[in-house]
Amino acid sequence: MRADRSLPSAGAVDRSNIDIEQEIASLRSAPTKDLHKKWQRLFNTPVPRRFSRDLVIRRLAHTLQERAFGGLAPTHRRRLVTLSRQLAENNLAALDTRFGPRPGSRLIREWQGRTYMVNVLENGFEYEGKRYGSLSQLAREITRTRWSGPRFFGLKKTKADHG
After folding, report:
1. Do residues 59 and 35 lie in contact, with contact meaning Cβ atoms separated by under 8 Å?
2. In this structure, is residue 78 part of a structural domain?
3. 0.70 cut: is pTM over it?
4. Taking each helix axis from N to C terminus, what angle separates 53-69 and 32-43, rounded to the nearest 10 degrees?
5. Is 153 exposed, middle or buried (0-12, 13-18, 19+ CB in 10 A)?
């Protein structure tokens, strides 16, 4: 794909939020002809015939944001490629959409001066020889209070972790 020369390359962060917001807002009021020209510049191809005006605007907005602020992390891109291959090869039958720890992994959590090691199984988790259906069930067993298991084991960030 050929990039519009007026836009920064993917991953660049040299545009302010305000500029991008204004550019995206202007897409809604732009004539369809102008949207098609912008599409041609960004993708070096005409707008697909079946694309509605709304879909064109959404795709343009997504691309503008992606080029200004960066796209998906490489790990997420690889995961999407894997899922699409599974879908193409097996239809929906063998599609594994889990985004958690893989079976065979070991989760380690230090809590109140003690280290907890949990084995990830195909259908659940194992801790000290006992099987658990979910990490939350296991976290409640360890802490004796209600916890989000993925959060307790560091698989899900809290709002404070995000910045």
Report:
1. no
2. no
3. no
4. 40
5. buried
Give me the number of domains the chain comprises: 2
Tell me the residue range of the domain where 152 lies: 106-157
Residue 12 covered by a domain: no
Q: Which amino acid is located at 73 in the chain? A: A
Torsion angle defined by CA atoms of residues 77, 82, 86 and 92, in that order, rounded to the nearest 10 degrees: -40
**Rounded Cα–Cα distance for residues 90 and 39 (Å):** 34
Residue 155 identity (one-letter amino acid): L
The pLDDT tens digits of the residues spanning 71-103 come to: 888 888 888 888 888 777 776 655 555 567 888
- Among 157, 145, 142, CA closest to 109: 142
Sheet arrangement for strand 124-127: 106-111, 114-121, 124-127, 130-132
In a domain, 7, yes or no: no
